[in-house]
Design goal:
heterodimer; A: mainly alpha; elongated; B: 190 residues; mainly alpha; AhpD-like; 2 domains; two-stranded antiparallel sheet; 2 strands; 4% strand; globular
Chain lengths: 156, 190
């Protein structure tokens, strides 16, 4: 992955050589591991029990709830390039309810929710992946929003 | 759901899922745990996250850079931002850990105690006020941040590199709070 393919730069409108690009270069680990987290959560070598399409769908749902047009467009395009998950199944419905809860009201989550999801064939590993993915996108939304302010600021 | 009060005292965390056991962990899991805090091999939280080792192996160095990288926003101010975010999201465990870090760094535990007692609107020095206000806006409504938020940070004396660090600290706790709140719960120390 080259620097020019950095997703946060692209979505925050950070141009190579710009003052905001220089600000990001101060913190190479922020750049490297933010992109790396995206890559391992959305396109892992071994997706285990959460399919690539389900991962794109989860991320799209979070970006949509958080009203991040830029990230929603990114994940919608990713989902479009993958085999669609089977909609309307109790498993997918339980998954999407959990995604909404973790995004909007994480303090209302209980052990019972995780137990219910395990009854829909999500393993402990899958449930960690789902929590990481939802939580990562809420991070990404805020980094993009904050950096975009700096990148788009009118400069004298 | 039991409502626990926010506290400066230590709190423990119990996992809701079976955790990875350090004794039977894979080499990849051990490597990811060892990039995490020193206690990770015995921490229920990190032993939960080790189920998705690829994600943990990216997240731990990111977390460490955001909270501890040298220069830029002073560490105590990163801690203050993460306490404010944890307070808004209701993560009693996260707030306790980072309230104590802030208090160790500043020797002023009364600042966080007042924030707990009076809420985010409590009287704060101008830099702290600007940091908490930005943490609140970016946490509650990331689509609603504007140039006015940026101007308020600069008026309070934050430089652009500090604003980048602050943004990442706030965002990192959108992430951390959701893991802590949805994979387990705070418990009293043993």
């Amino acid at each position: 992955m080259t620097a020019s393919a950095d997703l946060i730069d692209a979505l925050a409108g950070i141009e190579p050589g710009s003052p905001t690009a220089a600000l990001r270069e101060r913190r190479p680990d922020f750049v490297r591991y933010s992109q790396g987290s995206h890559d391992v959560l959305l396109a892992p070598a071994d997706p285990a029990g959460v399919s690539l399409a389900e991962r794109a769908l989860i991320a799209l749902r979070v970006a949509t709830i958080e009203r991040s047009d830029a990230l929603a467009a990114h994940y919608r395009a990713m989902l479009g390039g993958r085999d669609a998950p089977t909609v309307g199944t109790p498993r997918l419905q339980a998954l999407l309810e959990h995604v909404e809860r973790v995004t909007t009201a994480p303090r209302t989550a209980t052990k019972t929710h995780l137990d219910d999801l395990q009854s829909h064939r999500f393993s402990p590993r899958d449930l960690v992946t789902i929590a990481q993915l939802v939580a990562f996108v809420t991070y990404q939304v805020r980094v993009v929003a904050g950096l975009r302010l700096l990148a788009q600021e009118p400069r004298a | 759901m039991t409502e626990r009060p926010f506290t400066l005292d230590p709190v423990e965390w119990a996992a809701w899922l079976p955790t990875v056991e350090a004794a039977t962990a894979t080499p990849e899991q051990l490597a990811a745990l060892d990039k995490s805090p020193a206690s990770a091999r015995t921490s229920p939280y990190f032993l939960t996250l080790a189920h998705d080792v690829a994600a943990l192996a990216q997240r731990s160095p990111l977390f460490n850079a955001v909270m501890y990288a040298s220069g830029g926003l002073p560490r105590a101010e990163r801690e203050l931002a993460t306490v404010a975010v944890s307070y808004i999201n209701g993560c009693v465990y996260c707030a306790s850990v980072h309230a104590r870090r802030f208090s160790e760094l500043t020797k002023k535990p009364e600042i966080i105690q007042r924030l707990y007692d009076e809420g985010l609107g409590t009287a704060l020095e101008p830099r702290h006020r600007a940091i908490v206000d930005y943490a609140e806006t970016l946490t509650r409504a990331p689509d609603a941040v504007t140039d006015a938020d940026l101007a308020a940070l600069r008026t309070a004396g934050l430089t652009d590199p500090e604003i980048v660090d602050l943004t990442h600290a706030i965002a990192m706790f959108a992430w951390a709070n959701r893991l802590m709140l949805t994979l387990g719960e705070p418990i009293d120390p043993l």
